[in-house]
UniProtKB/TrEMBL annotation:
Membrane spanning residue stretches: 6-25, 34-54, 60-79
Organism, as annotated: Paenibacillus crassostreae
InterPro entries, alphabetized: MrpF/PhaF-like
Protein name, as recorded: Cation:proton antiporter
GO MF entry, a single one: sodium:proton antiporter activity
GO cellular component: plasma membrane
Keywords: Antiport, Cell membrane, Ion transport, Membrane, Transmembrane, Transmembrane helix, Transport
Entry's family note: Belongs to the CPA3 antiporters (TC 2.A.63) subunit F family.
Domain of life the protein comes from: Bacteria
One Pfam family in the UniProt entry: MrpF_PhaF
Compartment annotation: Cell membrane
Membrane topology: Multi-pass membrane protein
Length: 97
């Protein structure tokens, strides 16, 4: 029973990823695309967690943490790029004067 429920969850999550892929490609603005990319990352985390439950293993926990960190960093960098036009700002150093 639980196996069929987890399999159905994987199907629903994969459909959600395909819907986000559509928004990522067709999105009217850059912020829509960033939100879609972040949602894909979250759905991917959920899919890996469900696969970990299906396989009765804790081996994928490190992968889940790595994808979570990369998703956060990517979303933050893209949002900063939209807001300011650059990801890394060069400050006023003493060498620049």
């Amino acid at each position: 029973m639980i196996t069929s429920l987890l399999t159905a969850t994987l199907v629903i999550l994969s459909l959600a990823i395909f819907a986000c892929m559509y928004r990522l490609i067709k999105g009217p603005s850059r912020s829509d695309r960033i939100v879609a990319l972040d949602t894909i990352g979250i759905n991917l985390l959920a899919m890996i967690a469900v696969i970990s439950l299906l396989l009765h293993t804790e081996a994928f926990i490190d992968i889940i943490l790595l994808i979570g960190i990369l998703t956060f960093i990517g979303t933050t960098a893209l949002a900063r790029y939209i807001e300011r036009g650059v990801v890394i700002e060069h400050g006023d150093d003493a060498h620049d004067r």
